[in-house]
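Hey, I'm writing a tutorial for new members on how sequence and structure tokens pair up, and I'd like a real worked example in the thread rather than a made-up one. If someone can provide the structure for the chain below, I'll link this post from the tutorial.
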Amino acid sequence: MVKVPILGAYLRANKGANKLGMQQAKISLDENHIKILDKYREYGFKDKSSLVRSAIEEFIKLEEKRKLIESAELYAEIYQADSELRDLTDSAIVGWPK
């Protein structure tokens, strides 16, 4: 494991960066992660921190999608198990175009 201060150099070089809400984080990465991080320019990022922030944002989107799918599956399960709910739904859509 290699310890990498993700935003440390950026914050020191740009004293006003904290005004943007950026906080420094110290994380540990293995050699494979470091190799990816070192290629940040090849992936179109201006710096390593941008690559890490983008990866975290993608993780957040995936997690939100997973939660929505889980919720939809639960609602579908409840709907299938509750005949009164199905009847209520069917009565509410009477007269609606198909």
